[in-house]
Amino acid sequence: MANKKHHNKEIQAALDYAVEKGWFIRGAGDHAHSWGTIYCPYNDSECRCGEYCISSIWSTPRNPTNHAKQIRKVVDKCIRLKEDQQPTFNEE
Predict the structure, then answer these.
(1) Structural domains of the chain, count
(2) Is the entire prediction scored with pTM above 0.70?
(3) 1, part of any domain
(4) Residue 74: how many CB atoms within 10 A of its CB?
(5) Domain that holds residue 50
(6) Which residues have CB under 8 Å from 24's CB, separation 6+?
């Protein structure tokens, strides 16, 4: 979904952040209530039972700033992303 941009700049920045972290975005249909959905690239059963593997993006949230923060929080809470960022120590 490279062409569709969210009309709110804060939410679009949060979506760009998610894409940078490997998440992908799928736009909603023409008659949907949400703007789209973000998906974790790992999407496995160990990741909080799927709680953080998918999240809806609203087209007109009540508070766009908070919605953008929630998107970033969902991305940052991914346990697979945290594992990838852990430092590795060489035992010699």
Answers:
(1) 1
(2) yes
(3) no
(4) 19
(5) 21-61
(6) 1, 38, 39, 41
